[in-house]
Amino acid sequence: ILCNYFYLVKTVRSDIKMENEATYCCDRHIDIAFDNFLVDNETFPYLVNITGHKCTYCNKEATYALKLKP
Prior knowledge:
Elements (H helix, E strand, L loop, with lengths): L1 H18 L2 E4 L4 H12 L4 E4 L14 E4 L3
Antiparallel strand pairs: 1-3, 2-3
């Protein structure tokens, strides 16, 4: 029963994470964004140079997007 519980929790958390496919960050917040992405998604992000988005942490112009898929 305990094994099934952990499988269910992992499945639900995976579904929730997919809603937020990208994290946008500026040069100043790349370290914390990378750390948070690793903790939340348990995998390394694809780092993409972007324009036209705001940093998730300070609302300045974002330089990078951290994504699950390229």
